[in-house]
């Protein structure tokens, strides 16, 4: 059982929709048709990645290859994967075949930049960013403009406490401060045996809180472990 079973953290999924060139080229009286190319020639699509141009720009010693030092720093984390023949340098062919690896290293925090850059509804995006901003401000309890490890831990404990409160409010029908098998619903019911640490047939607030603090997979491993005789 994962921590998310208790915390119910929503996953943020950002979908970037590609816009075709024709959609933004509607002209007065022209309908959906793109303007004809000059002299009847079809417009040549711009390549997403030009290995020759890339080599020309970054091959400082002009040997026709890119060493790790010549490769822009944002791509170096994939150098070994790009260097398929393991000769310590990247050829035009290796760059072309490894175009999918020519991406900057991603970080979880990138979702903020994606929200800002890809938003097609600024009011909605601003509202979501405000939620993130307000929570980060709450984490920064000493108001130094930074979030340190201790503040992060305190914020996690607060979230856990709030989630446990909401679970008990929803499931503890007789308000006795514990959840019985009969009261349990959903994920709490499915993982009742794992959360009920003292096996008394009830889940206390302490047991629920401890379960919420478990690292991913910890309770499952505990469940699968053979009992000692």
Q: Decide which structural class fits the backbone.
A: mainly alpha
Portion of residues in helices?
40-55%
Mean pLDDT: 79
| Topology-level CATH name of the domain at 140-224 | Recoverin, domain 1
CATH class of the domain at 140-224, named Mainly Alpha
Largest sheet: 2 strands, antiparallel
Taken as a percent bin, the fraction of beta residues is under 5%
Describe this structure in words.
This protein has 229 residues and is an all-alpha fold. Among the domains are: 51-101, Orthogonal Bundle (Recoverin, domain 1); 140-224, EF-hand (Recoverin, domain 1), CATH 1.10.238. Helix content is 43%, strand content 3%. It is built from eleven helices and two strands. The protein has helices at residues 3-7, 51-58, 79-82, 92-97, 110-118, 122-139, 149-171, 186-190, 192-195, 205-213, 218-224; strands at 178-180, 202-204. It has a two-stranded antiparallel ribbon with strand order 1-2. The longest helix has 23 residues, at 149-171. The chain starts with a helix and ends in a 5-residue tail after the last helix. The model is unreliable at 1-34 (pLDDT under 50).
